[in-house]
Amino acid sequence: MVKKQTKNENSSKLLARAAEVWNERALGFITEMNLQIERSALDGVQLRMPYNPEFCVDEEGTMLHGGILTALLDSAFGLANFLAVEDLESMATIDLRVEYLGPAQSRADILVFTECYRQTQHVAFNSGRIWFDTNGQPEVARAMGTFSVTRGTNSLLDKLNTMGPGQ
Amino acid sequence: MTLDKLQAQCDRVPFFRFLGFEITDVDDDCIHARMEQSARHVGNPVLKAYHGGITASFMEAIASTAVSHNWEILRPKPINLTVDYLRPALAGTLFVRADISKKGRRMSSIETVAWQKDPAKPVAKGLFHFLLV
User: Fold this and answer.
1) A153: distance to nearest CA of chain B, Å?
2) Across all residues in chain A, what is the average pLDDT?
3) Which of B111, B81, B58, B55 is nearest to A141 (CA)?
4) Min distance B117 CA to chain A CA atoms (Å)
5) CA distance A143 to B70
6) pLDDT score, position A130
7) Residue A11's domain is classified under what CATH number?
């Protein structure tokens, strides 16, 4: 028998595990971004993306292209929804709005925080922001994302919940 | 600028090489491009669909190339964007067309559309604002 845990302890561990699984099962572009999960909670997630010169606009690698920030936000919104939306079976991005608040000019790691701040039966509303991991560096982007969500009994979180240790 | 020169300019941008697109047609107000799918573009491994961020990045790249081309600005400054996802972008070629809808003195507005087999069935549309000063 698995030792009974308090509900909160259980749910925060489960969320952290679910976030790691989400990240590990990723292929393709999410692997390229090499994301590290720093916070995984119902009320928001924080991811770290290491500097990568391939995502820059200049050969010297001093400035990131805006598109990579949009891509990072889209992925982080996905994870926030994955954790926050109950019985989530699938989701699709309806739209993204991104504001570029200043040039993304740094070789520091990028941090992104996103939260699903409202969910209805069919729609999840997200907001997010991006900044560099350096002292005094202002935000470089803010964003809103709207997602169409399908709920059902085959939720990934439920599957994780029934797994024993090491499975 | 000729198509060859524009392509050469794009090929000097590391992130544009990462995307790996090709400019196929250029005139004053409109640019067309195509991109073949590679494994690093994929966001949904089951459907082999493009990551939404890749579709958005491709549209932004072509929008900014339209600005570069018209105003001879090497690196246009993006202000904001809206991307509307209309259909899944599945395995295969992705096409993008960027049209300049506002030619202001200080800013420009660019509309983009992305499609796969049928231009009448777009997978995404984008609206991008750039600062020209």
Assistant:
1) 20
2) 87
3) B81
4) 21
5) 28
6) 97
7) 3.10.129.10
